[in-house]
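User: Please work through this fold.
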Amino acid sequence: MADHTLKVTAIIPTFNEEENIAKAIGSVHWADEIIVIDSFSTDNTVEITKGHQRVTLVQHEYKNSASQKNWIIPQAKYEWIFLLDADEYATDDLVNEVQKVLASEPKHDGYWIRRKNFFMGRKINYSGWQNDRVVRLFKRDTCRYEDKKVHAEIITNGSLGKLNEYIMHNTYKGLDHFIGKINWYSTWKAHDVIEKGKSTNFFFNVIVKPWYRFFKHYILRFGILDGKAGFVISILAGYDVMLRGIKIWRIKNGDQIKKDK
């Protein structure tokens, strides 16, 4: 157990993460409480989780990432939450920094933490991912995830600080899985665009925006310096935008495109 002053609940949401869940859990064994909230995995995620001591396993039907996290956060025993996705793990340096913050009367309600992303077996230094930050250390009672279906972030009436160390993020479990995630995300994003009354112009969304997104990631965000992986990331970023545009068009024309996990 850690000797920090303020106690911490670590939360790990998961679905079919048998490749990653053990490493994620292992990186939060310093926490005073560990909760894994599983969306009824069909692989060995649950069995692997049950093999770890001090881990509370909760299963809950998944609607979207934000609602899943907002459902479990109030059930944490301790005021401070450290949240990891199952394909992430905390470095020793980050754990030490978190413990120092919690031992010195934190000045903020939550903290942005930088991420190092890995794709196709290599660390990505550019490609639009170089400034990736997420709020993963925060107070249970003053912070919540915004009402957003995809890539929701923590919101608070208080203040957010920044930590210096990193979360490690393995974004890639195979090309089929990655493209499947793009398909899923693009559906949620399409529905979000329509619900919020944003532009749904076909030419702009399906032709202009995808090419600009590729150019932005590959040239403006220096994806070219990440080699083949940077090119693939940039192509898939453009594909994501194009697919979203097509789905916006089809939904508005009556197609029933299901929002599913």
In short: The first strand starts at residue 8 and ends at 14. The mean pLDDT is 94. The radius of gyration is 19 Å.
